[in-house]
Amino acid sequence: MILILRSDVVPEDVDEVVRRVRDEGLEAYVSRGEARITVGVVGEAVERAFALAALPQVEEVVPVQHPWKLASRDFRREDSIVQVGPAVIGGPRVVLMAGPCAVESEEQLMTTAEAVARAGGTVLRGGAFKPRTSPYSFQGLGREGLDLLAAARRQYGLAIVTEALDEEGLEMVAEVADMVQIGARNMQNFALLRACGRLRKPILLKRGMSATIDEWLLAAEYVLAGGNSDVVLCERGIRTFETKTRNTLDLSSVPVLKYYTHLPVVVDPSHATGTWQLVAPMARAGVASGADGVLIEIHPNPSEALSDGRQSLTLSDFAQLAPTLDAVARALGRSL
Ligand code: PEP
Ligand code: MN
């Protein structure tokens, strides 16, 4: 349920409405839009919110038809902007995020970070904790990887995004990361999502490999309902019958999400395709589809990468890709 407040409300009025919502045993979430302030009301007995239409501060009570409430455009009409260090995700600039699949060594990370900064990237990605299909594959450097990411941030002024695999590791990751990645395999790890809701760090929520858009938005809703409004959605491809690509990049999810949700959306063409030759065209297609950013895997020496080498761009291929992303963005009135 959404309470649309009168246009002349003062801060005390908003506080009063929030208090009255809580008195009904419901949760209140305030969104301050350009034109209006709305209060999202959620909870089990949400129909009780209808009674609040009588409050003098409330202009209208609107039921939300979708299962996800705080993620919906009914709650917040304007695009949400998520600030991650120097990167503004969801604004007019398309955000370039890149880095290795996994942090492997100081030299590998620093060389890569320099290439990201030089190409106009603002966010450095790199896994310190890796969700590997096989328990015998490289699992990441752990704490040491986080320390290397922090050093790269200091040296190159980039924001850091890195994955948390479980609740135990979340705090450690969140101490270093500017944005915490929740991977495809964890998209419906509800305990982890709840813990992300309690964090005060932006969350990069990847789409589960077999998740519908509704399931994905409900996963985001867990984080939003926990009180963390900084969620960025990442389309990284879904499982289909096709075998020529690692996954199928569902680019139509971008305009679908733009229609239904105010949350920023980014595209990961690397995990979506699994093949480096396909990354540049699909990154450009991602920007063309209206994504607010791209997340790309790059490596100084892909053939020796400890994970996802086949889908990693070389640093020089990445340097060549960046201006073409800018050109596509400019065709849409945006820029990198
Ligand atoms: C990754 O970003 O390296 C990763 C493991 O991604 P996903 O969760 O999308 O597979
Ligand atoms: Mn990877």
Polypeptide structure, described:
The chain has 336 residues and is α/β, with parallel strands linked by helices. It has two domains: 2-62, 2-Layer Sandwich (Alpha-Beta Plaits); 82-331, Aldolase class I (TIM Barrel), CATH 3.20.20. It has helices at residues 11-23, 106-118, 143-156, 167-176, 190-198, 213-225, 253-260, 269-273, 276-288, 315-331; strands spanning 2-5, 27-32, 37-42, 58-62, 82-84, 87-89, 95-99, 123-125, 159-163, 179-182, 203-206, 231-235, 265-267, 293-297. The strands form three sheets. Strands 7-8-9-10-11-12-13-14 form an eight-stranded parallel barrel, surrounded by six helices. A four-stranded antiparallel beta sheet has the order 2-3-1-4, covered by helices on one side. A two-stranded antiparallel ribbon has the order 5-6. The radius of gyration is 20 Å and the shape is elongated. Bound molecules: phosphoenolpyruvate and manganese (II) ion. Residues 101, 271, 297, 307-308 line the site of manganese (II) ion.
